[in-house]
Amino acid sequence: MHITILGGGGFLGRKLVARIAAQGGATLTLFDMLPPQVPFAARCLGGDVTDPAALAAAIPPETDIIIHLAAVVSAQAEADYDLGMRVNLQGTLAVIEAARRCARPPRVVFTSSVASFSAAPGAVMAEDARQMPLNSYGAEKAAAELLLQDASRRGMIDAVNLRLPTVIIRPGRPNKAASSFVSAVLREPLLGLHTTLPVAPEFALWVASPRVVVDWLWHAATMDTAPLDTDRGINPPGLTVTVAEMLAALIPAERALVRAEPDASVQAIVGTWPARFIDTRARRLGFAPQVPLPEILAAFREDDLAATRGERGL
Amino acid sequence: MHITILGGGGFLGRKLVARIAAQGGATLTLFDMLPPQVPFAARCLGGDVTDPAALAAAIPPETDIIIHLAAVVSAQAEADYDLGMRVNLQGTLAVIEAARRCARPPRVVFTSSVASFSAAPGAVMAEDARQMPLNSYGAEKAAAELLLQDASRRGMIDAVNLRLPTVIIRPGRPNKAASSFVSAVLREPLLGLHTTLPVAPEFALWVASPRVVVDWLWHAATMDTAPLDTDRGINPPGLTVTVAEMLAALIPAERALVRAEPDASVQAIVGTWPARFIDTRARRLGFAPQVPLPEILAAFREDDLAATRGERGL
Questions:
Q1: For B25-39, B87-101, B174-188, which range has the lowest pLDDT when averaged over its residues?
Q2: ipTM field
Q3: Best exposed site among A18, A281, B142, B199 by fewest CB in 10 Å?
Q4: Which CATH number fits domain A2-311: 3.40.50.720, 1.20.140.10, 1.10.1060.10, 3.100.10.20?
Q5: Predicted TM-score (pTM) above 0.95
Q6: Is B89 helix (H, G, I), strand (E, B) or coil?
Q7: Catalytic residue among B110, B137, B203, B277
Q8: A136: which chain B residues are within 8 Å (Cβ-Cβ)?
Q9: Out of B139, B154, B231, whose CB is closest to A149?
Q10: pLDDT of amino acid B49
């Protein structure tokens, strides 16, 4: 099985690569801006996702599965419109073009996002809720979904558009995602560091743990897509939590490291993201349910805490 | 007021130009593949809607209103994927780029389509119904809508995405739209010509007359967009009719010219288009209601019958 991971050098990409390598049986190509460095047998390429020649090298004709994680994150796409449009929209169109040249229509797993939706606080999103994004990242993701879905209907590719919740707990450092604080409010105290909270404690979020997201990506890569028919979008079974519930999962000494510091620009983006979804269809399609918060914290301690300490010189 | 009409040489473009010219007070630029020929004072340009230089000439910095009618129609976009993506998606992105260079964010009226939706027969579409297109034309239109809406939210442009019903009665000849038969089944008998009906008489359609569509386009070009807030899509007040009702508007001698000839490829496209929409929001926003079928036939006789006879040498 020939698998290409675009954005293979990122946080989710590296975790997915580790899982696929542990399973064995796959010929792996990893693609990112710089060639990813991984302790597994893989063809590692660097390049721009909008460059047809670079993508043709990353997606050879024998490719069976493309997992497309390469993206400009939400706050960055909001700050730099041209960059977001180029990578998130045109980059995905370039992936469709490269995939059309494969010997057989490849499975394409596309990571769309909760940011492609908007809703009033408290709203519960129906299975067929309209994507009404209120940020450029979400608009680019929703538009790309429509075009991946159409290419699937035409039989050019076989796409699954997985709308990821906010992933917690991201290792490493804060990044340019508007949702960066959602991980930071747990990760930084677990590292013994101070952090700020830009939203109110009652603010609700739709989240997922890295382990479960990797499960979802692999399921999306290998599932029978016939039951999806023409609807290629998946609202997976995320977890609805409030910031207060997240803080309650910390011990008091850790919690004391979190200081309220309302940030209107962060609220303007994440404040429109729905926190509650009906996920019956995704569960029926075999997407794993979420795990509770204490388990998410335990997984971070087990999988990522030491590496994050090392990376940040703590 | 500086107005540019892209696709100004087409059926709706020419009718809109006539209306704007009759009102006076506007400096008009018309753009199409070939320079439109009109009996009005207008700057008439020819070019490709994906060519930045051609668009820059068509959309000078002082432009107040852009009416973007240029498109590859449904059956053609289905037959030629690359052409549809280039014109309907990339062409619209090029319009956004050109509009960003205007002195003030221009109003952009975008003609989206009923083809951007799908539904089971008999379904009534809610105001916030999801766009789930089952043809490439509709997918390209829905994706373009998302990006026009996002550019509006960012203050780059001021878009109104008008999702047009099937327009009847189109003058001239049958075209490559999957919905070409909807006009032909009335127009051809009115010209004394035989025609075929590719769908069943009980097939229901969402239609609009050219006069009302021109009203809508002008309203979309000049309305106060503040009440739209971030939702730039309009499901205008179309008319729901069955093919049998359309045939009943003909006299028996005309009706005898229509022969049933089921066409699976036409049914596969138009059979997924909803025929019923809740349109309370559009009416509240001032979009004119539809007129009944006999009035639509009378308007065709008055506005287009003679010209169509001449054009077709009848």
A1: B174-188
A2: 0.96
A3: A18
A4: 3.40.50.720
A5: yes
A6: helix
A7: B137
A8: 150, 154
A9: B139
A10: 97
